[in-house]
Structures are given as structure tokens and as C-alpha cells.
Specification:
alpha+beta; 9 helices; NuoE_N; 2 domains; binds FE2/S2 (inorganic) cluster; globular
């Protein structure tokens, strides 16, 4: 496990009743508990709500803390071992408090070859931090957590980086550096596509499924010209994929537990 999560996965911890992770869940107030109820109500089985619940706790604390693990376990009737197993598997769940902004630089093959490695090096040098480290005090304005990311599914726009999961396409090291400096000054430069830039905790709230200002969230450009070029070509040439028959028998929905 990690230095922050002071728990183990011994046999006792698989028993929900016996779990003790020493997390004080009072940090999650009535409003957060009401949000949790809304999330849980979306699913036939409460345990299916774990992923958005972890995003909800990150929207409060900027990471998944021991309290966050305990809170999710209590709300979903899971063991803390079960919750921590999920929280430590996905890189989007942060174990240390994140900065105001999370900057993810793609260093996978296409981006790396087109300058992603250089972007990561220059930004890291400027911030004085490495992977998964924060420049500034986490949560305070201008603080930035840097990470290198695997393919961000935008190879046609390489090299790319994301700030709080919003895209900045076709970056040069100089542009990336200017972007990071602007973030440090408290500015929020517009992403290439998608909604206006928020901050890490705001993005986490959206990932939990709460869009407090839906209109502005969907107002930005949603697709790049490069990305839709294939669909346009197919359209022009009359290419189609077989459609799904109308009479496919769907499996029954599970009962709500
Ligand atoms: S390699 Fe960077 S987006 Fe795919």
C-alpha cells in the first residue's frame, strides 16, 4: 500500500464488520452525503456506484484519503479493503492531495515521438517536480500536480496534454510552458475543445456525475476536425456499418438491491 493509506489487506479486513481504517468521515458533510445518495440511486446495486463515489470524495479532499475510503465503504456496505483495492488500481484516484490543477502530459509513443517527452521535461524542470508531485501547496491557487500519462486517446492531435482532463492539442514545449505559467498566475486558458477550464476538484465533481452548470459544460467545441475526418469521408463515400437489428433480445435488468 502507500505511505498515506495506513491499512493492510489482511484476512480480517475482508470482513466488513471488522474493518477499521481510522478514517474520520465527519469531513463529509450533509451535502456530500446527499450527493452520495443520489449517486447510489443511479445503480441497481449500490456497489456499482464505487467509481463515481471515489470521484465525489476527490472533489471534497483533492485525493482519496483514508477518510474517503472509509466513507465509501460505509455508504456502499463494502469493506475498506474492497474500496482500497479499487482506489489503488486506477491512476485517476490520487493518493496524495492534488494541486489546484492536474497537468497530464502524454508521453506515449505518438506524443513522445512528436515532442511529448520534451514537453514533460520542460514543464517538470520549470515546476521543479517529477511524476505525481505537486508544485506549490496542494489545493491553493496556482498549485500544480504534474504527471506523465499513457495514451490520452488523441493521437491524431499529438502531442497533447490535459489540464484537469481537458485537452490542449498539438502542443509545443513553449506553448505547454506558457500554459503552465498561466495556470500558476491563476489564469485558466481555454482548452482546445471541451468546456471551460475548471480546477481539479471541479472536474472531479463532474466525473461524479454532477454538472452544476450544464450549459457551459457542453458549450465548447466538442470534436476536432482531425477526429471527425474519417466519419466525413465515410459519409461522402456512402460507407456504413451494419445496423443493430430491432428484435435483439436484451437480458433483464438486475433487481435493485
Ligand atoms: S500517444 Fe498521446 S494521445 Fe495517443
Amino acid at each position: 500500500m502507500t505511505e498515506q493509506f495506513e491499512f493492510t489487506t489482511n484476512k480480517e479486513q475482508t470482513d466488513h464488520e471488522a474493518v477499521s481504517i481510522n478514517g474520520d468521515t465527519s469531513v463529509f458533510g450533509e451535502d456530500v452525503r446527499a450527493d452520495a445518495k443520489q449517486i447510489i440511486a443511479r445503480y441497481p446495486e449500490s456497489r456499482s456506484a464505487l467509481l463515481p463515489m471515489l470521484h465525489l470524495v476527490q472533489s471534497v479532499q483533492g485525493c482519496v484519503s483514508a477518510e474517503g475510503i472509509q466513507f465509501c465503504a460505509e455508504q456502499l456496505a463494502l469493506s475498506t479493503a474492497e474500496v482500497s483495492a479499487v482506489a489503488t488500481f486506477y491512476t485517476m484516484y490520487k493518493r496524495r492531495p492534488c494541486g489546484q490543477h492536474l497537468v497530464s502530459v502524454c508521453t506515449n509513443t505518438m506524443c513522445a515521438a512528436l515532442g511529448g517527452d520534451e514537453i514533460y521535461r520542460k514543464v517538470g524542470e520549470h515546476l521543479g517536480v517529477g511524476h505525481d508531485e505537486t508544485a506549490g501547496t496542494p489545493g491553493e491557487e496556482g498549485s500544480i500536480t504534474l504527471e506523465h500519462a499513457e495514451c490520452l486517446a488523441a493521437c491524431d492531435l499529438a502531442p497533447v496534454l490535459q489540464v484537469n482532463y481537458e485537452y490542449y492539442d498539438n502542443q509545443t514545449p513553449e506553448q505547454a510552458l506558457e500554459l503552465v505559467k498561466a495556470l500558476q498566475r491563476g489564469e485558466k486558458p481555454a482548452p482546445t475543445r471541451g468546456p471551460a477550464l475548471s480546477d481539479f476538484r471541479g472536474a472531479e465533481r463532474q466525473l461524479a456525475g454532477f454538472f452544476d452548470d450544464l450549459e457551459s459544460t457542453v458549450a465548447g467545441t466538442s470534436a476536432a476536425v482531425e477526429t471527425v475526418r474519417g466519419a466525413q469521408l465515410a459519409n461522402e463515400r456512402g460507407w456504413t456499418a451494419p445496423s443493430m437489428p430491432d428484435d435483439v433480445e436484451m437480458p433483464p435488468l438486475p433487481e435493485k438491491k
